[in-house]
Amino acid sequence: MQRILNTLYITEYRSHVRAQKGNLVVSRPDGKARVPIESIEAVVLFGGQITTEAIDLCVSRSVRVAALRRSGRVRFTISGPPTGNVYLRVAQLRAADDADAALDLARMFVAGKLQSYRSLLARWEAEARYPERTVMTVAREVIAERISALPSARDGDAVRGLEGDATRRYFKGLCAHLAGRTDVGSFLTRSRRPPRDPVNALLSFLYGVAQTEVEGALHSVGLDRQVGFLHGLRPGRSALALDVLEEFRPLADRLAVRLLARRQLRLEHFVRTGGGATYLSDGGRAVVLEAVEAWRGEELAHRLLGRGVPIWALPSVQATLLARRLRGDLPAYPPFVLAS
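Below the sequence we write its predicted structure tokens.
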């Protein structure tokens, strides 16, 4: 168990979480810990069990409960009854059913992500040497071309095609940037299900943690996390959360690069299964979660707001802006973009 700021992480597989007199009691083989429900905003489980009474207590106090797999992939999120104005969700459904409105939003989610990718590559390119610099330059230029092509994309498939190609180019640049900078071995390509090497394991884990934050932010403003615009509708899929998550993947990548370049993570922080999958070990997960909470307190410049915003608040800011766009208060949705 790790309690970091306002999030309770349950990391031990033999942990048991129950409710008792307005508190969460976490039992482990080495003892118990009592956590007042008023002191937390989220419970994130990587293992262990939680009782229905504990879930009920969390839901009644607006404490989000999320469960993640070893890879960081979100298994489920429980946030309680819908909040906000029902007319906002009606507007969301109408926009999802309107081909032009859905296409416009899909373009913006991808544009935000790709602009941030371009900014990251420009930073890495400035300090790189040949031949790695050439790889980053080519990737950055191709991404710029894909961004320019987004306004003329005629449907969601075209947008996803541009996004997919640009993302592949970006990961080539990331591979070049990490070459010789880590103690976890080589990183050759992006692999997800399952992650095949330590870098992929770290990226997948960070994306999963970020998704739980996005889902909580969408719920808090009254949006339905399953009704998206870029990602197709599918039973059980948090399509809108995955849409907004696109803007935050570059932030997670930047944190991953920091952890690896500073040698805060080494091979000993990962485990490899017989099937070839690679995951963070218990110790590695603890290192990453502590780094995530410290990182969430950092401020980043927000172009629309014209000021710095703590990273922990960015999902809520973007969820609010999306809600305002769907209500018609904004002419367009402004995605978050990392400053150059």
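Residues 86-327 form a domain with the Four Helix Bundle (Hemerythrin (Met), subunit A) fold (CATH 1.20.120.920).
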